Structures are given as structure tokens and as C-alpha cells.
Amino acid sequence: MSGPPAPRPRAREAGLYIPGMPTGMHNAITDVPGVRVGHSTLWAGEGPLFPGQGPVRTGCTAVMPGDGDPFRAKFPAGVHVLNGFGKAIGLPQVCELGELESPILLTSTMSVGRVADALLDHMLRLNPSAGRDTGTINPVVLECNDGELNDIRGRHVGRESVCEALRAASGGRVDEGVVGAGTGMRCYGHKGGIGTASRVVEVPRGAGDEELWEGADHYVLGALVLSNFGAWEDLRVIGAPVGAMLPPPPVAPEGDGSVVVILATDAPLDARQLRRLAARGALGLARTGSIASNGSGDFLLAFSTRNRVGHHLGGYRARRDVFIDGHPGINMLFRAAVESTEEAVLNSLFVADTVVGRDGNASPGLPVEAVLDITKRVREGSDGG
């Protein structure tokens, strides 16, 4: 295999029936205005592993939360750690302050340090006063372990890859599957990687003390996942117990692994509400069969593109418009987080085809036709067909 396999159709494009809320234009996290995604994919060598040389099956993915410099105008954000077996950088400060002030980079576990250093270089170029006349910068780098397919000890992702991913970041359709940070990842015993999806949330306006608002406001919630988790026998596809109804793959790894979920929205939520939103992404993982196993690093981060916080603020009070917790719109956003996370995982599986990596280790592509047949039979059975 001289390079990454061509992407296969996404879940809906392949014919999978997915009920629920309407999707955005591209059914991707980039449907949230201002959010962009870029990848850098590293692929080299075949055969036996020679640490430091290859074979290489890895990369870097950048999620740009919005236009402009995120350090100067920070994004409200919240974090949920479902299972903390991971090596993430930057999450404690996001948890404490409720602010995201850098792009989010995804990569291979043992490349986290080099990626964070390169991200800092990028942010320091944008902010010459950081660490001198003002505060330091908190880079956010999240990871999954691609060591079964990749020369993970070689730590091949560095400055060049980070710069490429940041430069490549764009809106519109997002490349999925065997690309960027997802190049060497596996999911439910098959090839996983990058997946994304979105939902459009129509929130009815309500009655205030002095006036009545009619109509509805429309918001977008998008999810992007780096899928590298799950045991084959646990896989569920839109409720169908696919893993229990199909033969296991030739080499079915244990269920331990990791997953990163990034949720973005243009709805006006504060950091506390975004933390609650991030937690609902875990329910989307559970819908696909995840049990958040002991050795799995499951990290979920949610941010809003509204109510950005300036690095230099005057005064001591700020007034921002945010959702009222008891408003029906909150539950609608929670539902959107569950649905988009679930579909993003499925897209990562459907799009990714077979990859052979170091020492001939293979991660087979999901048997799409068999999965579609099972889900159809299960759905027709439940409908009385």
C-alpha cells in the first residue's frame, strides 16, 4: 500500500437510515460559522517496525474555533472527562477558567509534546507580548494511541505537520477516515479515525415579562471525533447490535483505546452549560456501544463561537446573553450533541477503508454492506415489517 486508501462513502451516502434532527449543509462541525478543520497526513514505509524510521501511519488534525486570534478573543468552553487514561495538554486551564484560547490539535499519543511546542510557536508569532507584557498561552492538544499501525516511538508529528494542518484549515466539507490524526486509529475492531456530523437546532422564542417573541432562532451544533476505541462485539449502529450479529474481524483487539470528541456551536452558552453539553457527547458514544473501558482515554470538549472574551477587559463586570437552563432549547442542544457525536463515530467507520501498518498489522475497513443489511432488517422488524 503506497499511500492512504481512498475514502469510502459516509454513512448516509452509503444508505444508512439515520433518524433525528436535521443536519447542517455539510453535516460537519464546519457548519458552525467560523469553525474550520485542517489535516496533515504522514504515511511512509512498509513491513517491520524500526523505531524512529517507520512504518509511519499518523498525522495531525487542527480545529480552528473561529476567525481571528483565539488568545486575544477567547471562546467559552467546557470539558468532560469520561475516562482519564490519556495524555492531553491544556485541559485543566479550560476546566478552571471556562475559556479556549488556542486552536485544538489532535494527534498521536507520543507526539503530544512536539505538537504542543509547535502550536505554541504559532501562537507566540501571533502574540509577541505573550509571556512578556501579558499572560502565557494555554495550547490544547488531544491524542489517541495509534501504535498498532504506526511507529509511535518515532514521534513523527512535529512543527512541519502542525503548520500544514493549520494552513489547511478551511470550512465546508471535512475529510474523514484515514486522514490527519485519524490515519493510524482503529475503532470497534475496524479502521476508524476522523468523523464529523452536525445538527440544526430550531429553538422557539418564549414569553418574557414585558413582551412576547414569536418565531424561532436557528443554531448549529457540530461534532468532530477522533475514534480509536471499542470492542467489536459491542458495536451498535443506529440501535442494531451489529457486533453481536457479524463474525469478528480476523484480529479483534481489546476494547481499550481512546476517543476525542469536539463539539462546537453558535448557540449562546456559558462555560458551565458547555461542560454539561460536552457530557452529553458521552451518550452519543454509548449509543455506538462504548463502555468507556479502563484503558480508554475519553475526552470531550465543547465550545461556543458566541460571547467571546477579550484578553484585556476593562471594569469588573460583564453582561452576556446566554440560554436559560430551563428553556426547551437546552434539551434540544443536548439531543443535538448526542446525535451528532453518534453519527460522527459512524462516519469515521464508514469512510475509513483497510490500512496495513507496521509489522504487517492490519485494520480492516468496516463491512459496510453487511452492516447495512443488518440495520435494515432490525429496523424493518421493529417497524413490524
Give unreliable regions as ranges.
none
User: In the CATH scheme, what's the topology name?
Assistant: L-amino peptidase D-ALA esterase/amidase
- Overall strand count: 15
CATH superfamily: L-amino peptidase D-ALA esterase/amidase
| Count of DSSP-assigned helices | 8
Helix residue percentage: 10-25%
Note down, in words, how this protein is organized.
- The protein is of the alpha+beta class and 385 residues long.
- The chain has a single domain (11-379), classed as L-amino peptidase D-ALA esterase/amidase.
- It has 8 helices and 15 strands.
- The strands form 4 sheets. Strands 3, 4, 9, 10, 11, 12 and 13 form a 7-stranded mixed sheet that branches. Strands 1-2-5-6 form a 4-stranded mixed sheet. The protein has a two-stranded antiparallel ribbon with strand order 7-8.
- Helix 6 (271-287) packs across helix 7.
- The longest helix has 24 residues, at 328-351.
- The chain is globular, with a radius of gyration of 21 Å.
- The model has no long low-confidence stretch (mean pLDDT 94).
How do you describe this structure in short?
The protein has 385 residues and is an alpha+beta fold. It has eight helices and 15 strands. The strands form four sheets. Strands 3, 4, 9, 10, 11, 12 and 13 form a seven-stranded mixed sheet that branches. A four-stranded mixed sheet has the order 1-2-5-6. Strands 7-8 form a two-stranded antiparallel sheet.
